[in-house]
Each structure stands twice: as C-alpha cells, then as structure tokens.
C-alpha cells in the first residue's frame, strides 16, 4: 500500500502518511470505522460484511454502474493491476447476474418497461449477451413493439458477426421467429380479453420421452376440446397454443399476446403401469397459480384412463363453482362498485346466490339485473336470474309464488332463445319446469344440458331432484355420486341433494351425516335433517337443529318448507310435514 499510494517515499514516511490517512477516515466515518476497517501492526483490511453495496441490497432493482471498476487509474504496479483486473471482472459478472435476475423477475410479472431497462443495462455491461438480447426482445414484444424487437435482434446479429464471426444461439433465433410470426398475425394493439373467462391449454410437457409424445399431445387436445364445449369460456385454438411449444416466454407474456387470462399447463409421465399427470392453472396477468392437481392412475385401458383424467380436469375448472369462476369471483369482489362491468356483476351475483339464503339471493338478483342492463342479450345472466326466482318459490320465500314462477319461466326461456346451444340455458329451463311441478320436462332439460356438455357436473347433480320427486331415488343417488366423482371439488349443495336422497331411502343416519357436512345449510336441508333425527328418535338433538333453522329463517313454517317439493306421491310430503310438526315446527 505504501508503494501504491506513496511511491518513492521511505517506508517510515509512507507509514506515517498511512496513519494520517486512517485518522482522517475515522473522523469522516466516525462510529462505523472500527467495524469497517480492521487494523493490526502489519496489516490493514476491510470487513466486507460491514459494507453494503448495490450487489447486496436485495431490493430487486437492476444493478446500475457507471463503468468498470477504477477505470483510468494507472499505477504501473503489477500486483495492483492484476488485482484490479480480477475485481473488474468479478464486479461486471455480478452486475450482469443481478440485472438478469431482475429482468427475469419483472418479465414474469409482465412489467415489460422495467424489463427493458434491465435488459439494456445487461447490454451496457456485455454488448454480446444472448440473455440481454432475448430479454430486450421479449420486453419490446410485450410492450407491443414487435418491429423494434426484430430491429434489436438484427443489430445484435450484426454485432455478433462482426466481433466474433458467430451466429446467435438457437434459443435467440427461435424467439426471433416467434416474434416475426406474431408481428405478421397479431394486431398492432394488444388483444382485448373477452368479456368471459378466457383460457389457453398449453402443450403438455412430455416427461417420458421416447414414442409417447402423441399420447401427451392427445391428452392436451382432449382437455382443450372438452373445455371448448363450455360456452361460458373462451378457449384458444390448438394451433395457436402449439406456437408456444418449448417457448421461453412466461405466463404473463403469453397471456398478453393471446389476450387471455388463464393458462392451463401440464406435465405427463407415462410408463407401462401408470399415467401421472400434473396440471396447474395460472392467472397470466397476475403470474399466480390459482389451482394445481396431480392425477396418478393405473394405466389399464389408456383411452378410459385418459377420458377419466380429462373429465375430472374439466369438471374442476368449469362450471359456476369451478376453479375458473371462483377466481373470477375473487377478482370481481376486489373491484369497487363503479368499476364493475357486466361480467363482474355476474360473478358477484353467483357468489351471493351460492349461500341459498333469502337476503343474499335477492342481492344476487340485483347484480344479475345490473348485468342485463349493461348486456341485455347475456344468456347466462338471464339463466341466473331465473334461478333466483326459482328459489323464491322452491324455498317458500315469495309473497306471490305465481308471479315468481312466471318470472322463473320467462327468464329461463329467454336464456334458451338467446343461446340454444348453451348447456347452462337448458339447465336453467329445467329449474323452471321443476318448480312448476313438471318433473318429466325438468329431467328432459337437464339431460339436454348434459348432451350439450357431458362434463356439466352441476346439471348432472341437479337432475337428481326430479328423479327423487318421481320416486326414482336409486337413480338419483347414482347421478349425485357420479357428479361428485366427476367434480371432486363439488359445491355444498350436492350434499343437500344426497342427504334428501338418503332420507327418502330410509337411511336416516346416513342422511344426518351428509347434512352435517354442509358448510352453508339452508332451511330445506335443515328441515330434512330435523325430520331424520326425529325418525331416529334422537329428540335431544332436535332442539338445537330447530334453533339453527330459525337462525336461517326466523319465519320458517312447515307449509312453506314442504309444499314446493314436487313429490308425485303426496304421502311422502304429508309424512314429512307430520314429522316436522311433531318436532315442534309451526305451520
């Protein structure tokens, strides 16, 4: 250090100068000096743990640098020059690594302007960085500046050729090809997401290798086809999804290019004995996984195993209680009232309806009516409006049941008129016939919904009601159990139907067990639970359940609970009413 800072001075003078310099450092840094500078008789060093640099601050920003370390300092001391060269290389590598990490993080989040800044910093530090070039291209493409991305690529190719006589890496060339195709086919402006949930089923990853790729592709295609049958979803075609096979683009980038919210991704491993499939649903703009599941099946007949896996995936995702709609409801719930569009009102209404309580059902109706004010020809909104009127009759809330029945039929009929191929519309029409007491027509409508979409587990479960009312209880149980198998994350009301069926079979203990599993019971499910306890002779438990019923519906009366039930055999209704009165319920 003496030779470095005070060349030519005698050793004693140099040491004296060094002591004076250290004194000045301590005066300037004050209390932190002893932590930073370590000094002994013959050695001075710095404690790196006591020094914070831009490489250690951990704030997620790209490291900024004004150039290489100590550029322009000429000492003509070999050891110093060697040390300085090593430090420059290390600091440059650290800065590049930090900028790359920052760039990848903001690309995943869809923050393309920030990603471009990080990529440009990488290119300043290393003008021939393939990672920096690809990051800049991805960021520019994400900003809708695909022509600029291709110009950046061309400039990089020229620099690479002139300086190294080399061509870009294959990954960089594939990215350029993708951006070029996107520039030819996609509009200059960002695609606007549809006004209903939108999804792309990505090519599934084949973890097996060998000759199984066609089976993996077929599995993804079957899921895509089954989802596309759901008219409430916008599903991107397979050709567009295949464009992103082996792509380095992240979920936010793909979602932005295709104008969708969700990406369904899968990984498949096949062997002689088992099919293993991992799937996850990603909210692209938010870069969050909203659902994931693993399917592990004995292989057996490949087609039957594949059909089972596809059916369960689709049932879990679709439907008004499926994963997609739940996430849409959460997004709508987070918005302010002034920002709600027709789809948001639809989602909020569906969330409220699910409680099956009078006040919440009527609040849900208000949202469906607002959705129709904004989008008068929305078949789903008309269908959901029909359901709110259905429950006015079926749960005995309506002051004028005849008017509520007419409104149910009117809204359901309009839903079918607007979209005859929408399975949900026929499901809603079935509800109108069910509450009118026409069990045969109701079952026909539910079955028509299932013809249009065999994966509609909700229509399958709902079809148990007309079967129970017609005395076909065994068939009703079979349909409910099939719906539960098809949709393992089934909504609470499936328990309602199964509990009723167990009661009608005379399995009163089983009925009580099923009803107890409901997280959101309603007055009718409570009435059946009370009747089951009475039939078991467990009168000591009846009082608590009656209080629970009155908490749900303070004005509950036997007539209102039993009359809407459309049993062909009136003796069943009469016996149920007598049991409830014997339990102490009025009316």
> What low-confidence regions span 5 or more consecutive residues with pLDDT below 50?
57-63
Structural class computed from helices and strand pairing: alpha/beta
Task: Report the mean per-residue pLDDT as an integer.
Answer: 85
- How big is the Rg? 34 Å
DSSP, total strands: 8
Shape designation = elongated
For the biggest sheet, the summary is: 6 strands, mixed
Beta fraction: 5-15%
By DSSP (H or I, 4+ residues per run), the number of helices equals 28
The amount of helix comes to 55-70%
Query: How widely separated are the two ends?
Result: 101 Å
What kind of assembly state do the chains in view correspond to?
Answer: single chain
Outline the structure in words.
Helices cover 61% and strands 7% of the residues. It has 587 residues and is α/β, with parallel strands linked by helices. Strands 3, 4, 5, 6, 7 and 8 form a 6-stranded mixed β-sheet that branches. A two-stranded antiparallel sheet has the order 1-2. The chain is elongated and about 115 Å long. About 1% of the residues have low confidence.
List the helices and strands and how they pair.
Elements: H1 2-5, H2 11-29, H3 33-36, E1 37-39, E2 44-46, H4 78-108, H5 112-125, H6 130-142, H7 146-164, H8 170-185, E3 198-201, E4 205-206, H9 213-228, E5 234-235, H10 238-242, H11 251-258, E6 262-270, E7 274-283, E8 288-298, H12 302-317, H13 323-333, H14 342-353, H15 358-374, H16 379-394, H17 401-418, H18 423-435, H19 439-452, H20 457-462, H21 464-469, H22 473-486, H23 493-504, H24 508-516, H25 523-536, H26 539-552, H27 558-562, H28 570-583
Parallel strand pairs: 3-5, 3-6, 4-6
Antiparallel strand pairs: 1-2, 6-7, 7-8
